[in-house]
Amino acid sequence: MAARKYDYIIIYSILFASILSIAVLVRLLVISELQMDEFSGLVAFVIVCLLLGAAYLSFQSIIDVWLLPVIERTVRKKYPQIECEPEVEPIGSMPNGEISVPNYDEYKQTAQQKIQQEQAKVLENVLTYTVQELALYLTESELQQLCEYIRFFQYATENEYKQIKIPVAVDATLKSIDLMHFGWNIGNQFKKTGIETATFIKRVFAERLKESEISTIKRKLRAEGTCIIKIKEKL
Fold this sequence. Notes:
Elements: H1 2-32, H2 38-78, H3 104-134, H4 140-155, H5 176-189, H6 194-204, H7 214-219
Helix pairs in contact: 1-2, 3-4, 5-6
């Protein structure tokens, strides 16, 4: 688009320069050869500019209206295999004047499916990490319960965490800092805030974290210290 604009600027600049050059020559001719005054030369200059400009516009109109259609018809008859550039259809409008978006529902559904697939992949990674990280410290039934809570955690809000009634029991080998690190690792994958993650693990590991307030858990989610479960940005 910008290149075409510059092309037009160059073409019209050459055209105007040519008209001005011819008009200047006519003015000089009127003054020097015809021995007329400066005013007459100026009048001749203006008249020539107007005549040449009008001639150009007339010539362009003749080409656009008469010559180009004739050439196009001739080319079509001689070379029928050449197809003309298709016309761009205008965007459809709704009866009430609102602009309709072609295939909106299809694109929306595709986008939603993509989001769902990405979220399903994140959940799969988190569950795999959970099983691998905690298999030594939870019974099978407790681990299954924890995985169910994690599925719930992905989409639940902070207020909905109250639905978690039965805490998960963990081996005494794991300390509070390990559970906080675990909570941060999975909460980070789900894009949860610190308070959401702290509230969740407070409910899930209620027995082990009974001495810790939610505000304390939030502050220590990434605390450094001797631990088994390390902080992981990516699972």
